[in-house]
Structures are given as structure tokens and as C-alpha cells.
Specification:
Number of helices: 11
Strand order of the largest sheet: 3-2-1-4-5
Radius of gyration: 34 Å
CATH superfamily of the largest domain: Ribonuclease H-like superfamily/Ribonuclease H
Shape: elongated
CATH topology of the largest domain: Nucleotidyltransferase, domain 5
Number of strands: 12
Structural class: alpha+beta
Strand content: 15-25%
Distance between the termini: 108 Å
Length: 382
């Protein structure tokens, strides 16, 4: 028994009527909306094989890209258990790379829709018209720095600070810390200076330069004393430019959106639990693949980075600076404590002392750029 669809039934009815002379050839062309050569082919096939000519020869063949039910079950199970917090593009990449399941994008989307898994994020913000800023033409001309507090790993919010090159969108280095402090920014800047060299401009938001507002769960102030980093970078000829809005530094903002979407599930899959593990995984495992996929080539091949001489000790060049005036009794006060100077017959009264706090935890004291000793502090009872 031959079962035909509606369009196949129409084709058979019209061709049979033309063959028996009940309707004209031209009338049939208008009804079927086909060319003369096609209608001649239909008539020839009708004469040879009868009504079976209406069925396409591939109708009973299984498509080469069809997913078998067992394979679909395996993909659905992996997406629900192993890749449940990945986006669809990211999950498909992992299926191809790690599970050796080669599946097209369209087929994977249909599978996800059919099984109600890995739903797309449909939340959209109202768009505002803005002018687009062109990328820098050379690497090392302008770098954007920012930190993002997020649940990157574990159950508490931590902060990831990154430096991204405006010319290529390449993340040069990133570091996790409990919160976004000036010290964490210094560590990232030092690493980039050591590995790539001095750049021209650092583009950041205004956090840390106006007021002291607590912005995190740890009770710490975001980038308190950020002017110290500005002073340290100026030693290498680096200028800091402050952005007036998040959209102005869109390159790094979009990078964080991608990282929050892709890095979090990968760190969960890798079992990351500590800051040391997170920093090693991010810079040595995740970033190389991320750079291959998302970084672009700069317009000019020549780099604007200026190498830093190996003889320069970067750890000594980056510190938080506070200054105090030395009193006539060779003491100075800091944070409600009085400190005595070991003056060794040197007269320091009236001079300014520099208190340099380093990211490694050291605190050193300098007068006229010469390090001096400090006696044990006592509480200021006055």
C-alpha cells in the first residue's frame, strides 16, 4: 500500500490527468508551478514506474548526521551532570574536545531545545546608542585593568583582577585575591612588566581615588591608596587614565562577562578550591585556550612594550607609600601608635619619613631614600 503526502497526491493527480489528456500541459504547469523540463520528467517517470514516481528516492534513507537515541541520551546525561552550568557553545566545545562527540551547532541546539537543557540566557538590557572607539593599533599602547568580585570558585565571592591589551583583547595576566586591593593590582602589574615589558597607558575606573566606600563582604576598601600604584607605574613611564563610565572600558567589561560564563564551570570541573590552585589554573591552563579563541591580531605587528631590564628588582619598586613628619624627639605617629627612630647620632627632626608597605607584607622606612631602623611601637595615649 502506497501512502502519499498531500503534495505528492497532488503531483500524482495532475500528472495522471495530463497523461490521460484530461487537462492540458500548460494548465498542469500552472497548477504544479514547475518548469516544462520537470513536468516532462514527471510524465516519463509516471509511464515507467507509475504512482511511485512521486516519492523521493532518499525518503527512506537515514541522514548521515542523524543522532541515534543512545548517543542523544549520552549527550543529555553529560549536559545535565557534567556540563550543567556551561553555556551551549562552551558545552559543545567540550563534547568535541573531551568526549570525542562530533555534533554540529544546529543539531546540538535542537537537541537542547528538545530535552529542555542548557537554556539560553534571554535576559536583555535596554540598549543605549554609544559611539564606538577603535582599538589601539599596537600591543602595549593601552592596557585596561579591572577587578570582578564573583563566586569564581567555592561558595564565597572572591575577586579576579586582570590586565587586558586593548589592541588584541588578550588577557595578559590575572590574579585571584579575597578582594580588589591596590596590592592585588600591583601584583598583576608587576607580572605584566616582568613578562611583557613597560606599556604606555593604564586605563582604569575611578575606584580608590574618591572617598573610602566599603564595597565587599570582607570589610576592605576597594583599591585604597591607589595613588601609590600610580606613583610606582610612573617610574616606568606609564600613565594612568581614568574612565568616566563602565562603557568606556568595554573591552575589559565584556571580557569579565565571558569569563564568568566560561571560567566558573571549568574551575568547578577542575575541582579548584584554593587561591593558589585558581591562579595556576587560570594563567597556565585556561588563558592559553581562551587567547586562541578570543584574541585578535593587532593592526601593527611591532609591539609598543618596552622591556624592563633584568637587573631591576620589581618587588622593591611597588609599595604603598605613607609619609609622616619626624618630631623633635625623633618619633612619628602612625595609626594611633608612636614609633621611635634609631637615629645613631643623626639629626632627623623636621624631616619627612617614608613608610613603604610591600605586597609581600614587609614594611620598610626611608629618610632621604636611605633605609633606617625603627624601634618597637607604643600606643599613643595622648
Amino acid at each position: 500500500m502506497l501512502i502519499l503526502k498531500a503534495n505528492e497526491q497532488l503531483k500524482l493527480d495532475v500528472v495522471s490527468r495530463v497523461h490521460s489528456g484530461k487537462i492540458s500541459f500548460q494548465h498542469a504547469l500552472k497548477i504544479l508551478n514547475k518548469s516544462e523540463s520537470t513536468l516532462f520528467r514527471y510524465l516519463k517517470n509516471y509511464q515507467e514506474i507509475g504512482a511511485g514516481f512521486t516519492i523521493h528516492k532518499n525518503s527512506k534513507n537515514i541522514p548521515s548526521n542523524k543522532i541515534h537515541s543512545a548517543d542523544e541520551e549520552k549527550i543529555v546525561q553529560l549536559c545535565k551532570e557534567k556540563y550543567h552550568d556551561y553555556n551551549r557553545t562552551h558545552a559543545r566545545e567540550k563534547l568535541i574536545e573531551l568526549e570525542q562527540i562530533n555534533i554540529s551547532k544546529a543539531t546540538f541546539n535542537r537537541l537542547c531545545n528538545r530535552n529542555n537543557i542548557l537554556k539560553k540566557n534571554t535576559k536583555r538590557k535596554k540598549k543605549i546608542s554609544r559611539s564606538r572607539r577603535e582599538r589601539m593599533r599596537q600591543t602595549g599602547l593601552l592596557l585596561q585593568m579591572d577587578g570582578s568580585p564573583h563566586k569564581w570558585f567555592g561558595f564565597r565571592k572572591t575577586c579576579l583582577v586582570i590586565l587586558i591589551d586593548d589592541a588584541t583583547s588578550e588577557i595578559l595576566y590575572g590574579e585571584f585575591s579575597p578582594t580588589e586591593t591596590t596590592f592585588s593590582c600591583m601584583n598583576v602589574a608587576k607580572k605584566v612588566l616582568r613578562d611583557h615589558g613597560a606599556f604606555q597607558v593604564l586605563y582604569v575606573d575611578k575606584a580608590g581615588i574618591f572617598g573610602k566606600e566599603v564595597t565587599n563582604n570582607f570589610g576592605a576598601v576597594k583599591r585604597e591608596g591607589f595613588s601609590s600604584l600610580k606613583m610606582c607605574l610612573e617610574k616606568f613611564g606609564i600613565q594612568i587614565v581614568f574612565a568616566h563610565s563602565p562603557e568606556a572600558k568595554g573591552r575589559v567589561e565584556r571580557a569579565f562577562k565571558t569569563l564568568q560564563d566560561r571560567l566558573v564551570p571549568e574551575m568547578r570541573s577542575a575541582g579548584i578550591r584554593t587561591f593558589k590552585q585558581a591562579n595556576e589554573f587560570f594563567n597556565n591552563v585556561f588563558l592559553p585556550e581562551h587567547t586562541k579563541r578570543f584574541a585578535v591580531l593587532s593592526v601593527e605587528v611591532e609591539s609598543a612594550f618596552i622591556p624592563v631590564l633584568p637587573s631591576v628588582n620589581l618587588d622593591e619598586q611597588f609599595y604603598m607609600l605613607e609619609t609622616r613628619l619626624i618630631k623633635s624627639d625623633h618619633t612619628f605617629s602612625l595609626k594611633n601608635k608612636i614609633y621611635d627612630i634609631v637615629h645613631k647620632n643623626q639629626f632627623y627632626s623636621g624631616k619627612e619619613i617614608e613608610i613603604r608597605s610591600y605586597p609581600q607584607g614587609q614594611v620598610r622606612h626611608f629618610i632621604d631614600d636611605k633605609e633606617i631602623e625603627i624601634k618597637k611601637a607604643i600606643e599613643n595615649v595622648a
